[in-house]
Amino acid sequence: xxxxxxxxxxxxSHHNIGRFRGISMISLKSEHRKLIHDKLQSLLASEGVKxxxxxxxxxIKERNVGIQFLNESVRYALKGMIRxxxxxxxxxxxxxxxxxRDDVANLQRMYYHIFKNVLSxxxxxxxxxxxxxxxxxxxxxxxxxxxxxxxxSNIETYSDLFTNGKFKLRLRKEFNIxxxxxxxxxxxxxxQLCDLYAGMAIYSRDSYKIYCHLEQTFTTVxxxxxFDVENDNSIKPSRADKxxxxxxxxxxxxxxxxxxxxxxxTFQGLRTRGPSNPxxxxxxxxxHYLDKAPIKxxx
Length: 299
Known about the structure:
The chain has helices at residues 33-47, 60-78, 103-120, 141-149, 171-175, 189-206, 208-215, 239-257, and strands at residues 6-13, 20-29, 82-90, 129-133, 177-180, 262-263, 271-272, 279-283.
């Protein structure tokens, strides 16, 4: 294989469950991969955690790992060593609230958007890539590998890049992705970091009222909440809610101190207005009235 200049890791959150769905991608130069991998692995070992997973975050030990992951990733991002991009979509918007929506085909399209907006726009044009997605995915990456292996220049092109609900992307031609290697997240802490960012992005939108309810317990500075959550008896945070909200609180505080342009309170969920920032939470919005999610084929 020829020289690979960059690598990207990805993970998905709730691609077919709940109102909000998302993809997290962390991209970096190949030369920085080992350093970041080893640092994250040492943070796991120091807390005695085998694997960080957002869905398992319900103890101080897991929260500590999460906070350290966030501190290190922000430090690397500020140095220009990594980019963190999280794309979130809402299945209640005009694009997605349709009958017979094909969530897998839609996930493929969202991957295309994040490839285009991260790999193409935020790194040098001549970058060559290996993609390391979490192996627990709805996408058949073997099919994508078949496309990458095609050498003929006479491949038909598709006006919308998709046909029959399949992921027919010319990944090698458009993004110079040379190889796709699905990974077990247990052995790849950078994918665990993707999981953390995707989890925070979805949770911050889906459970913002719970966050507001708990935020006052994390600080001695009393703030005026956007909702009357202090007297809302319907909000009963679990242990997992408390640890996850603490992670979001610490991350939000860190981003503000570093002027990273990540907003939480304004939009009632993590969001970045400046896509050029090294950490970007992007909310997909329908581009026009014809922008609709793909639907399942009828047999």
